[in-house]
Design goal:
Blueprint lengths: L1 H7 L22 H15 L5 E7 L1 E2 L11 E2 L6 H19 L4 E9 L7 H12 L3 E12 L6 H9 L4 E7 L3 H7 L5 H14 L3 E8 L6 H14 L3 E6 L4 H4 L14 H17 L3 E3 L3 E3 L4 H7 L4 E3 L2 E3 L6 E4 L4 E3 L3 E5 L3 H9 L5 E6 L2 H16 L1 E2 L7 H16 L3 E3 L4 E3 L7 H6 L3 H5 L12
Parallel strand pairs: 1-4, 1-13, 2-3, 4-5, 5-6, 6-7, 7-8
Antiparallel strand pairs: 8-10, 9-10, 11-12, 14-15, 15-16, 17-19, 18-19
Helix pairs in contact: 3-4, 3-12, 4-5, 5-7, 8-10
């Protein structure tokens, strides 16, 4: 396994979309094409499955040096109200365009730090969304919270607004690691917000951990996971640290590359964590996620309804996901768009009555076929690989998978490719064999984190 890790640990996409963002059309997407695509998807599915909303709340009081998100660091909370008003204006632009009232199946508040916002402003945001929308059956509302900046009042307000799931960014409990990544929070504080969530009635609580951070050791990971299992969150995300300082600049240069666990050390930390989760009764979900059998994510996996998008793995699928807020990415299934990345540019467009997208991609028929295969592999670890592919494409994909097959990581049948348990850690590499845009446009510079 050590040799396989060295062999396959190469830069590669995480596949929260296909095509991946670096391979979107350089010309972007015309605003009218995005609108047309959104309306098409909405008309096809609003009544049958509803839509999803991702709302990006970008503010943080301090910079975490592991973070690759689009954020704005400030301690000034007077930024909250004008930002929410702008988000609601953007939502009005979509509602005016869609005409019929949207039925929302899922809302997720991401960031940044959503719990940077006061309870009053969080209520203003969600109430504002539902002035022009209705809740779909099986409505799910989730949000990310910083344990140091999440009060019982916020937990209660978001619960009253319909949230039954939250996620806390823990990363690591070791003081040395926390200092290096500038994310210092005590186990006692995490325990406090976790137990408050349970007492209020939250049905699914998730903890996010990261392996591969600077100064992590076997001992620190064991202690972090021991503390996590003591609280028994319903879900655990165990992410590989994506070290991409060439993209994110100073934010990820708060430590030296030599401070990071090396390839095999890093993978050992993952395998150790994985076994500890298994021992505690968790089930592995797709890539980097674990859930208790009682959680909806596991039930979705069991029923082959697991979905993956820019929010990560979700228990329910909607064809249309609208992203609101600066830098948010929207997905109509037929197209992607991303909002302006700065608050100033985002606000200017919205105030001028323009949907604030600055780039996007209109999927071709071939993109849609490849997208489905990659989703199948990422969610179900198998795909009927000959669907939608011509004979030449099938031969080329099989040729690219040959080494992976020889290494015993997949099984290939007449019409199906199945990822074996030994191959789960290499699923990104397996998806890369299908990624025609990556193959046709090999990047000249490094743009992705390592696959393992």
């Amino acid at each position: 396994m050590k040799n396989l890790i060295q062999k396959y640990n190469i830069p590669g996409p995480r596949y929260t979309s296909y095509p991946t963002v670096p391979f979107w059309d350089k010309e972007g997407i015309a605003l009218e094409d995005w609108k047309k695509s959104t309306k098409r998807s909405f008309n096809e599915t609003n009544d049958s499955e509803g839509i999803s909303l991702y709302i990006h709340l970008p503010f943080c009081e301090s910079l975490c040096t592991f973070c690759a998100c689009h954020k704005k660091i400030t301690k000034r909370h007077d930024v909250e109200d004008p930002y929410i008003k702008t988000v609601l204006k953007e939502w009005d632009l979509y509602c005016d365009m869609l005409v019929e009232r949207p039925k929302i199946r899922e809302i997720h508040l991401g960031g940044g730090t959503p719990t940077f916002f006061s309870s009053k402003n969080l209520r203003q945001l969600i109430d504002g969304i539902f002035k022009r929308a209705d809740k779909f059956t099986d409505f799910e509302f989730s949000y990310e919270g910083h344990p140091n900046h999440t009060s019982e009042e916020q937990l209660q307000t978001l619960y009253d607004l319909g949230s039954r799931r939250n996620s806390f960014g823990i990363q690591d409990y070791d003081p040395v690691v926390q200092k290096a990544i500038h994310r210092v929070q005590s186990f006692e504080q995490v325990k406090k917000v976790h137990e408050q969530s349970k007492q209020l009635g939250y049905e699914s609580i998730s903890h996010d951990l990261i392996f591969g951070l600077p100064f992590q050791t076997e001992e620190s990971i064991r202690n972090t996971i021991k503390n996590t299992i003591e609280l028994k969150p319903d879900r655990i995300a165990y992410y590989s640290y994506a070290h991409v300082p060439w993209i994110k600049g100073v934010g990820q240069r708060g430590f030296d590359d030599n401070d990071l666990p090396k390839e095999n050390e890093k993978r050992y930390l993952y395998e150790l964590g994985k076994q500890l989760f298994f021992d505690a009764g968790y089930i592995e979900i797709g890539m980097d996620h674990f859930a208790l059998p009682s959680d909806s994510l596991y039930k979705s996996l069991k029923n082959k309804k697991l979905h993956r998008n820019f929010m990560g793995y979700t228990a329910g699928k909607t064809q249309l996901m609208i992203g609101l807020g600066m830098s948010s990415i929207s997905d109509s299934w037929y197209a992607f768009s991303q909002n302006e990345k700065t608050i100033e540019a985002y606000t200017e467009k919205v105030n001028n009555g323009i949907l604030p997208i600055f780039r996007g991609h209109l999927l071709t028929d071939k993109d849609l076929i490849i997208r489905k295969h990659i989703l199948n592999l990422m969610c179900n670890l198998e795909t009927e690989w000959n669907v939608g592919l011509n004979d030449q494409e099938k031969i080329e994909i099989l040729n690219r998978l040959q080494e992976i097959l020889d290494d015993g990581l997949i099984d290939v049948y007449n019409n199906k490719i199945v990822v074996k348990e030994e191959g789960r850690m290499f699923v990104r590499n397996i998806c890369m064999a299908f990624d025609l845009r990556l193959i046709e446009n090999k990047p000249e510079t490094r743009i992705f984190s390592m696959t393992i």
